[in-house]
Amino acid sequence: MKRRTNWLIIFGTALLALSVILLIAHYLIFRDLHWLEEYIVFDLAFLPIEVIVVTLILDRLLEARERKERLEKMNMVIGLFFSEIGTQLLRDIAGRDSQIAGVRAKLARAGELSPDDFEKLKATLAEYPYSPEMRPGDLAALKAMLIAHRGFLVRLLENPTLLEHEAFTNALRATFHLTEELDYRPSFERLPEADVAHLNGDVKRAYGELVQEWLDYMGYLKGHYPYLFSLALRTNPFDVNASPVVGGQKGP
Questions:
Q1: Are 108 and 236 a contacting pair, CB within 8 Å?
Q2: pLDDT digit string, tens, across residues 169-183
Q3: pLDDT for 131-183, tens place per residue?
Q4: Strand partners, 132
Q5: Cα–Cα distance measured from residue 252 to residue 249, given in angstroms and rounded to the nearest whole number
Q6: How buried is 188 (Cβ within 10 angstroms: 0-12 exposed, 13-18 middle, 19+ buried)?
Q7: What's the predicted TM-score (pTM) here?
Q8: Burial (CB count within 10 angstroms: exposed 0-12, middle 13-18, buried 19+), residue 140
């Protein structure tokens, strides 16, 4: 920072010196001090307007650039989450969602939908009655996966890049809360029904928010990174026939 400040001072001083030299050169050549005085006053009168215009334009350009860079960084982190754990988490929970059949086909074809149909699907999912029914064995497997990635989830929560992405932060917080709830239970075989229902409520919360974030991320990839979008389609957690192998989809 100090080096940059020194460079700016030197650069500004050089520009001022160049202006003085050019003004002196103008006087020595044309010997018209009166015109030079009028020109300086006239130029100074317009200087505030020039500063305002240039500042606004530069501010808008810099703001747009910073916004784009923040968006890129946020989506890199979101993509990392789905690559590491999010996609598998959605696949496992969706497999226990008794109501998923109503929207599974549309979710499996999410990448092929037109922009209007894509927005309609998002609206449908906002009102969708997520109904995962995780059994004791499912909860144990879910716990093992989440605990294995607990350090990763903590690092994501600490990432300042995500502070501006409230929706994904909420989804991540719900996922981490589910991890804590599961971690406090050494076994799931003899839990009271009320506690199993409570855990399924935590699963439902994280599941619903992650589905929305996954759909938004798919839309982002489709518009910006076709090669990443291709892999996301081939590993679609809602497509029972999905296969990462090109041309290697499983049969029905």
A1: yes
A2: 999 999 999 999 999
A3: 899 999 999 999 999 999 999 999 998 888 887 788 899 999 999 999 999 99
A4: 97
A5: 9
A6: buried
A7: 0.73
A8: middle
The end-to-end CA distance of the chain, in Å, is 61
CB 200 within 8 A of CB 133: yes
Residue 145 burial by Cβ neighbours in a 10 Å radius (0-12, 13-18, 19+)? middle
